[in-house]
Write a structure and sequence with these properties.
Blueprint (H helix, E strand, L loop, with lengths): L5 E8 L5 H11 L5 H13 L6 H6 L3 H6 L6 E6 L4 E6 L7 H9 L3 E7 L6 H12 L5 E6 L8 H17 L9 E3 L23 H8 L5 H5 L5 E9 L3 E7 L5 E2 L3 E5 L3 E10 L2 E3 L1 E2 L4 E7 L11 E4 L7 E10 L5 E3 L5 E4 L2 E14 L6 E4 L3 E3 L3 E8 L16 E6 L2 E13 L3
Parallel strand pairs: 1-3, 1-4, 4-5, 5-6
Antiparallel strand pairs: 2-3, 7-8, 7-15, 8-14, 9-13, 10-11, 10-15, 11-12, 11-14, 16-22, 16-24, 17-21, 18-19, 18-23, 19-20, 19-22, 23-24
Length: 426
């Protein structure tokens, strides 16, 4: 595992645009899903009345997902390319499950955006582009998928590509560095093998594009920061005990380390660490790990907690100042507004207590001091108070714990990053 740089790639896009199927196909074509398993999944898909879903079943392990044909939580799988050891994160596209999608994006270094050639970009496609950008992901590959449904028509590919270029540029992506690959996840066109159906396309397959366009994060920089490990979940495993699970954002986790979990304010000694069912002595940024800590019990640690060194625990905030952008709000945002803030793996309602400045997003200059309200399209500096304890850090100190998205009414209202904070007395 350690011989190649580790890359976390999240697959995003509108519901039913072929994310799970494409990931399943990629794993199958690279030899990571054995033939007999694939045969069994094909039978199960047939029995479930979902005849073309066998590749999606590779990723969608939850029974409810199979029955509804939707990806609800986040699935992890791994495979190797020539250059990387990749963990794939398949994030839900259905709008009810956006909070899980945000958690998925917050764990990724790069993204693959799936768009159906038949339907083109949908509302959800655009929301996911925004979320990917907020999560600090600047590396993206676009698959214009389901090309088989439009008979591999080059003209249709061109139309969808133009629409996507507009949406991506709007969020500040450099589209000259983004490949647009015509694919069929179900048939396997341009996933791991070049397609004979798209003779007009001269670019890379998805597998080649991952190696060509993606870079692994600079480990040295992240390892030099203090340990910060947002908890995704916590399990009780017989014979071992409580096992929190999450992805290391910064620092290094070692066996025998003394750690503490905030805001739960519990701690103990790390007894064992494992990744993909293999024991390890230490884990680095980007690793998705489960680890056992002596001294913590079943209900002590939960999603949204952050693990750090006992001597330099994660910061629980009293309040913080952030630069935000309002992306989508039907009326106006004023002091007292309390959307849910999604930060690393936590989801906490926070109140805007002061609007300090409105900023012109084009120039970055102050447009107004202490405005009464802000609205869609505005950028502002605001002061925010969480309604319950939460961990956050300044963006410049520990970037993954310094950015957030704000959700309300079933949509992403805004995004932002923390510039200053006041620690809470614990």
């Amino acid at each position: 595992m350690a011989d190649k740089p580790h890359l976390n790639v999240v697959f995003v896009g509108h519901v039913d645009h072929g994310k799970s199927t494409t990931v399943g196909r990629l794993l199958y074509d690279t030899g990571h899903v054995p033939e007999n398993v694939m045969r069994k999944l094909k039978e199960q898909a047939g029995e479930a009345g979902k005849a073309t879903w066998e590749f999606a079943f590779v990723m969608d392990r939850l029974k409810e997902e199979r029955e509804r044909g939707l990806t609800i939580d986040i699935a992890h799988h791994e495979f190797k390319t020539k250059k990387f050891y990749v963990t794939v994160i398949d994030a839900p596209g259905h709008k009810d499950f956006v909070k899980n999608m945000i958690t998925g994006a917050s764990q990724a270094d790069a993204a693959v955006l799936m768009v159906s050639a038949k339907e083109g970009p949908q509302a959800q496609t655009k929301e996911h582009i925004t979320l990917v950008k907020t999560a600090g992901i600047n590396q993206i590959i676009v698959c214009i998928n389901k090309m088989d449904e439009v008979k591999f028509d080059e003209k249709r590919y061109g139309e969808v590509k133009e629409e996507l270029i507009t949406a991506l540029k709007l969020m500040g992506f450099d589209t000259s560095k983004i490949p647009f690959i015509p694919t069929s996840g179900y048939l396997g066109d341009n996933i791991a093998k070049k397609s004979e159906n798209t003779a007009w396309y001269k670019g890379e397959t998805l597998l080649e594009a991952i190696d060509k366009y993606f870079e692994a994060p600079s480990l040295e920089k992240l390892m030099a920061m203090p340990l910060r490990l947002p908890i995704q979940d916590s399990y009780t495993i017989s014979g071992i005990g409580t096992v929190p699970v999450g992805r290391i954002e910064t620092g290094v986790l070692k066996v025998n380390d003394q750690v503490s979990f905030m805001p739960s304010n519990v701690g103990g000694e790390v007894k064992s660490i494992e990744m993909h069912h293999q024991q390890m002595k230490e884990a680095k940024p980007g690793d998705n790990v489960g680890f056992n800590v002596r001294g913590i019990g079943k209900g002590d640690v939960r999603r949204g907690d952050v693990c750090g060194p006992a001597k330099n625990p994660p910061t629980v905030v009293e309040n913080f100042t952030a630069q935000i952008v309002i992306l989508n709000h039907p009326t106006v945002v004023a002091v007292g507004y309390s959307p849910v803030f999604h930060m690393h793996t936590s989801q906490v309602a926070c109140r805007i207590t002061k609007i300090l400045k409105k900023i012109d997003p084009k120039t970055g200059q102050v447009a107004a001091e202490n405005p009464d309200f802000i609205k869609t399209g505005d950028a502002a500096i605001v002061e925010i108070t969480p309604n319950q304890p939460m961990v956050a850090e300044k963006f410049k100190d520990i970037p993954p714990l310094g950015r957030f998205s704000m959700r309300d009414m079933g949509m992403t209202v805004g995004v932002g990053m923390i510039t200053e904070l006041k620690p809470k007395e614990m």
